[in-house]
Amino acid sequence: MRAVVTAGPTLEPIDPVRFLSNRSSGQQGYALAAALAAEGFDVTLVSGPTALADLAGVTMVRVETALEMLAAVEAALPAEVFVAVAAVADWRPAEVSDVKLKLDKAAMASLELVENPDILKTISGRAAETRPDLVVGFAAETHDVVEHARAKRLRKGCDWIVANDVSGDAMGGAENAALVIKPDAEVELPRAAKPEIARQLAAEIAAYFAH
Ligand code: C5P
Q1: Which of 12, 59, 117, 202 is an S-S bond match for 44, by CB 3.0 to 4.6 Å?
Q2: What percentage of the chain reaches a pLDDT higher than 90?
Q3: Residue 61, pLDDT score
Q4: Helix (H) or strand (E) holding 7
Q5: Which segments in the chain show pLDDT lower than 70?
Q6: What is the position in ligand 1's atom list of the atom closest to the CA of 6?
Q7: Could you give all domains of the chain from N- to C-terminal order, each with its CATH number?
Q8: Is 164 one of the catalytic residues?
Q9: pLDDT value of position 165
Q10: CA of 119 to the centre of ligand 1 (A)
Q11: To test the ligand 1 pocket, which listed residue (85, 119, 153, 159) has its Cβ within 8 A of the most ligand atoms?
Q12: What sign has the CA pseudo-torsion 161, 93, 61, 123?
């Protein structure tokens, strides 16, 4: 069975030397890709820019922007499972300058941003024949974690959402704690190193296909 995972941040260029991005390290997504491969899935990892090495036994696709990430995910389908772990930048500059901009007050005030596609929502909304059987999203929240995550699962149209509290150092840190929110059950993954959280989530995913 095939799995597609997104990981890391996206990088949205402003000009040749500047960009918009975020602090995602990619660790949780890489750990999940490795854990799914260990469960026997044929895994494609679509990664934004990270400092992490390519994973052996996983098809690696390196991208920079959200638009590239969406195109790479669509090219990697069909798959039985899609897991969106990437911290996709919500906005990108409307135009990318070929030359280094002079970012004075006027330029900054008129820096126009346009919304990036929501990769998770796009894949969740595909027609049944081409939609992965199981679509899993992540919800990084700093407060009211469970309520926001339950609402996010419905809004995105995904099957499961993995809620995690990033008020500490989860984003970029080595540990994580999570709640897997399914339509009819919620499974707690207690605080542990990211590879252990990934192992447990991969086991949940494998179990879903085992029955
Ligand atoms: O809305 P929010 O960014 O909190 O949603 C997080 C979830 O949505 C994650 O699974 C993330 O990978 C996914 N996402 C996405 N494309 C976006 C924004 C978020 O796939 N443009």
Answers
A1: 59
A2: 87
A3: 98
A4: strand 2-7
A5: 169-172
A6: 12
A7: 2-210 (3.40.50.10300)
A8: no
A9: 83
A10: 7
A11: 119
A12: positive
